[in-house]
């Protein structure tokens, strides 16, 4: 799995950080998503999928093929 985030689309809701803190963080100054690991380990995949699904701005995209 490969994860991408669109910082320009992110609205700073923070759901991704709550669901998958090993993969996502937020910038202190504006709350925009920070991708900590673009290729998370398989045990984190379910949480990353959930984070992408609940992102209100659809700022998280996943490539399941890699």
Automatic annotation (TrEMBL):
Its cofactor is [3Fe-4S] cluster. The keyword DNA repair does not apply. One of its GO terms (molecular function) is iron ion binding. Keywords: 3Fe-4S, Electron transport, Iron, Iron-sulfur, Metal-binding, Transport. Signal peptide: none annotated. InterPro entries: 3Fe4S_ferredoxin, Fe-S_cluster_ET. Pfam families: Fer4_13. It comes from the Bacteria. Ferredoxins are iron-sulfur proteins that transfer electrons in a wide variety of metabolic reactions. This is Ferredoxin. It comes from Streptomyces bottropensis ATCC 25435.
């Amino acid at each position: 799995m490969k994860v991408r985030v669109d910082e320009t689309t992110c609205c700073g809701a923070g759901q991704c950080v709550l669901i998958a803190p090993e993969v996502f963080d937020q910038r202190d100054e504006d709350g925009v998503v920070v991708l900590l690991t673009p290729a998370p380990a398989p045990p984190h995949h379910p949480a990353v999928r959930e984070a992408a699904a609940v992102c209100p701005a659809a700022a998280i995209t996943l490539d399941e093929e890699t």
